[in-house]
Amino acid sequence: MKLRLAARALAEAKQIKTWWRENRPAAPDLFEQELDAALERISARPTSAGTLYEQGNLEAPVRRVLMPKTENHVYFAVEGDEIVVVSIWGAPKERGPKL
Fold it and tell me: 53-61: long-range contacts at Cβ-Cβ below 8 A with a sequence spacing of 24 or more?
């Protein structure tokens, strides 16, 4: 199954990556490494990875996978034969993204 990042998720990933590199000199590549691992996990088990995200307003069910070291969630949905990452959002925030 093909995996792609929606424009929003791609922009969020770039922003988080830049922030991480500038503010976490002891582990500048950690966000990228953890995101790659999360995407591999999602690709391997797209219908059971992570947990359901009940607040999503998309037609397809939205799931999220936690990246525990960087404290971000990867939000994704399976649309036909494609996995779409719709958002990458900081877990410490008091709310999830509006999807």
Answer: 53/96, 53/99, 55/96, 55/99, 56/86, 56/99, 57/98, 57/99, 58/86, 58/99
What are the DSSP E strand ranges found in the chain? 2-5, 51-52, 62-67, 72-79, 82-90
Predicted confidence at residue 58, as pLDDT, reads 67
Whole-model pTM? Answer: 0.91
What's the CATH code of the domain at 70? Answer: 3.30.2310.20
pLDDT tens for residues 46-66? 999 999 987 766 678 899 999
Question: Which single residue is written with the structure tokens 């939205």?
Answer: 62
